[in-house]
Amino acid sequence: MKEILRKAAERFDKNKCKVCPVCNGAVCGGLLPGMGGIGSGASFQNNIKALADKKLAMKVLHNANNPNCELEIFGRKISFPFMIAPIGDVTMNVGGHLTITQYTSIIIKACVELGTFASIGDLPKVEPFESAVNTIQGRGKNVIPFIKTWLDDEFMKKLEITAKAGCDICGSDVDSAGLPGLRNCPTPVTLWDGKKLSEMVKKVHSFGMKYIIKGIMSVKDAEIAAGAGADAIVVSNHGGRVLDYTPGSAEVLPSIAEAVGKDLIVMADGGVRTGADVLKMLALGAKLVLICRPAAIAAHGDEENGLQKYFTIIKNDLLHCMRMTNCSDLQSVNKNILC
Is residue 197 part of a domain? Predict the structure, then answer.
């Protein structure tokens, strides 16, 4: 992994991501476009702190020697309860080593071979999004494209492209209206109220797709998403990139999971770096965890091989932590494994 990080650092624009040994947002506040957090970077750093503040309760007098971390979700089985989070314009955010089409092709191949979901991020124009989606090539059941909250015509064009590719799950990062780079697009990203969200859920469902709403940081918004008929939410502050001084996602996850966990699938991201972090998110109420910056760095460092190595490390760490907290499977994971 050290060699993979070294290669990624050579390929990245240092003004967009410094590939720090510890990816915690401490030195990249305000680097937007880039991989930093908005403003002071406090929201990015709060994601890291919120997970670090959670402690695992070690339990060793048991026989959970060989934990199973397979997960059944969205009607299929995946090898472990985490996946790569969507990134839109990787060229704008990290530099020009990979185009969005090249990056998407890499992550789809790696994630399919690993047995988890891949995701596709959105871009301001239809053509590059379509080019990225075209890399799916018959693997639509393994890929979740995320479409931003554009005006209706733009959204529907991308939804039709997603459906044509054979995907049966898609999502929207509804907090993307806070991204500075999207404020002045010819087709602006907008905020949706509950009525508009219900309308868009119906449109997505009319294509036979399940719909994930990403960017939920309050019980109220979670309840609105559930009431609108969404199939899943992602508790996320967009990596601390859309609003300064928000809490870390792990801070708000338990109350949100408690409020709507019986109505829809609760997912989460934000500051996840290790298998222990994945386990903490699961214990706090998430069913599936998304990992962004480190996975993107690994993919840029050594393409499919880099991402596969990183995810294998995370999986092995997760299994170790499950074994040392008496979790024989994911059904055994709950808040009682936290101190």
Answer: yes
Domain count, the chain: 1
Counting Cα atoms < 13 Å in the Cβ hemisphere of 171 gives 28
184: left (phi over 0), alpha (psi -120 to 50) or beta: alpha
- Here the CATH number for the domain that contains residue 165 is 3.20.20.70
Residue 82 lies in a domain: yes
Which token pair is 177? 């209206």
Distance CA 230, CA 200 (A): 10
Distance of CA 174 to the CA centre of its chain: 13
Do the domain assignments include residue 89?
A: yes
Q: What distance in Å separates the CA atoms of residue 47 and residue 37, rounded to the nearest whole number? A: 11
In a domain, 258, yes or no: yes
Q: What is the pLDDT of residues 233-290, one digit of tens each?
A: 999 999 999 999 999 999 999 999 999 999 999 999 999 999 999 999 999 999 999 9
Tell me: the pLDDT tens digits for 112-142? 999 999 999 998 889 999 999 999 999 999 9
pLDDT digits (tens, 9 = 90+) for 281-290: 999 999 999 9
Tell me how far apart the alpha carbons of residues 78 and 101 are, in angstroms, rounded to a whole number.
24
Domain span including residue 92: 71-328
